[in-house]
Amino acid sequence: MGERRARIINARRIYITTAIPYVNGEPHIGHALELVQVDALARAWRSAGHEVRTLTGTDDNALTNVRAAEAAGVPVADFVRAHGDRFVSLFEPLSVEFDDVIRTSSDPRHRIGVERLWRACAARGDLYLRDYEGAYCVGCEAFVDAEDLDSRGCCPEHRTQPDAVRERNWFFRLSRYGERIRAAIETGELRIEPASRRNEVLAQLRTGLRDISVSRSFERAHGWGLTVPDDPSQVVYVWFDALANYVTALGSGADEARWWHGADERIHLIGKGIIRFHALYWPAILASAGLPLPTALFVHDYLTVDGAKISKSIGNGVAPAELVGRFGTDAVRWWLLSEAPLGVDTDFTVERLVRRANDDLANGVGNLVTRAVALVHRLRGGLVGEAPAFADVADVDVEFAAALEAFDLRRATRRVRELIDAANRELERVRPWELAKADPDDQRIDEVLTDVVDRCRRLIALAAAFVP
Question: What is the distance between the alpha carbons of residues 363 and 348, in angstroms, rounded to a whole number?
C-alpha cells in the first residue's frame, strides 16, 4: 500500500489533445489514428492513477471548407455541421472516449477565447498591419515560399498550385520569439517526440523566423470565419483560430486554471505535416499572450495506401467505420497502435491488419489465456494460489509505462507480445501437465500455474487501454 500511496501522491494532471481536422471531406483511417492514440494513452495513464483530460474537435473556419461547401452547393454552416458530425460519429465504432469536443465555428467558447488571445497579443505589441504579396496554398492554409514547391510549382503536400495573393493583413511578430522557443525545446520545457522531429524544428529555428500573416481579407474568406477584433474587414487566420482551440475549449475560469495553467503535462498529439504550426507558431502566440507553453508535442507520421499519403484531396481514404464493421474494433485499434513506428510512414493493407490481429490478439492473448485456464481447471479444479496484487500499469511493467511516456506505442504493444511469449516459454519449460502424471501434488504445478495466471492478468491490464 505504501508504494500505491506514493504513486497517487505523485500523480500527474495531464491534458492531451488531438489536432482538429478540416471537415471538407470524409474522415479516413488517418483521422482514426490520432483519436485512438490519444484514447489509448488516456486510458493507460488513468489506470496508473493520473488525472487526464482529453480534447478533440473540428476545424470549421478553413477556406478549404468554404470551397468544398460551395462546390456542393450547400451553405457553409450547414456543410461544416454535417461533415463535423461524420468525424464525431467515429467515436462509437472506435470505442474512443473524449472529455470534450469543440467545433470552432459554432462553439461560443471559441469565439470568446480567440478574441481574448488576439487582444492579449495586440496588447504585447505583437500585431501590426502590413501589405503582403505571396503564394498561398489553400490545402495548407499557409503562405509558401518558392523553394517549398516542387518542380511543377505545386505544394508537395497537396499537389496543387498555390494561389497568388496580394492584400493588407494583420501580422504577428513571430520573429521576436525564436530564442524563446529554441530555449524551451533545448531545455525540455517543450518536449518533441520523436527526437528526429525535435531536430527538424531546431534546424528551422537556426534559419531564423519571419513574421507571419494572421488574418485574411473578409472577401477572400468569402465572409466565413471569426472577425478580427475591431477590424470587420478581416477574419482571423485559420491557424491562429484553430491552434487556439486547445485553450478556448477550457474557457477562462476554473477549467483553464486547472488544465492549462495547473496541468503537469499539456500534450498535443499531431501529424508531421503540421509540426511547424504547433512547434513554432503556437508557442510564440502563447508566449505573447502570457500563457504557459505546451509541455510536449507527440508527432506521428502518415498512414499510406500503396505508398501514397491517405488524404481527402487525393481521394484514397480508407473508411474506419467500414473496417470496424468487417474486422471489429479491437482489430482496427490494435493495428493502428502496433504497426505505426516513430519517424516512418506506415502502409495500410487489410492483410496486415488481419495478420496482426490474428497473431497478437487471437493466437497471442486469446490462446495463452485459454491454455492457462484449461490447465488450471484440468490440474487444479479451477483454483490457483493468490498472486501478489498489482496497483496499476507501472506496477505491471515498467518498460510498457516508459514506452507510453516516449510516445512509442508500437514498442508498448511489442512489450505485450513479449509478455505473452515469456508466459508460453515458462509453461513449456515447467510442463505442468507432465509433472501431474508423475505426482499430481507436485508443488511446482501450483507455482507455475499461479505465475502464468498472474502473467495473464498483467498483460491483459496492459492491453486493456489499447483494446478496451
Answer: 21
Question: Which of 137, 268, 300, 456 does the annotation list as catalytic?
Answer: 137
Kindly tell me if the per-residue pLDDT of 265 is higher than 90: yes
272 part of the active site: no
Q: Is residue 249's pLDDT more than 50?
A: yes
Which listed residue (158, 268, 278, 300) is catalytic?
Answer: 158
Whole-model pTM: value is 0.90
Catalytic residue among 31, 50, 83, 278: 31
321-344 average pLDDT score = 95
> What is the amino acid identity at position 362?
A
Question: Of the residues 50, 110, 300, 309, which is catalytic?
Answer: 309
- Asked about 154 being catalytic, the answer comes back as no
Decide if 377 is catalytic: no
28 is an active site residue: yes
Determine the 3-state secondary structure of 331 from DSSP.
Answer: helix
Instruction: Provide CB contacts within 8 A for 388, sequence distance 6+.
Output: 454
Give the active site residue among 155, 268, 278, 300.
155
A 10 A CB-CB count for 434 gives 10
Is 437 marked active-site? no
Which helix or strand (DSSP H or E) is residue 410 part of? helix 409-430
Beta bridge partners of 170: 129
CA atoms within 13 A on the CB side of 292: 19
222 is catalytic: no
140 labelled catalytic: yes
| Spatial CB neighbours of 277, under 8 Å, sequence gap ≥ 6 | 142, 239, 243
Determine contact, residues 132/167, Cβ cutoff 8 Å: yes
Among the ranges given (206-210, 313-317, 334-338, 421-425), the one the predictor scored with the smallest mean pLDDT: 313-317
Which are the contacts of 322, defined by CB distance < 8 A and separation ≥ 6?
none
Residue 137 annotated as catalytic: yes
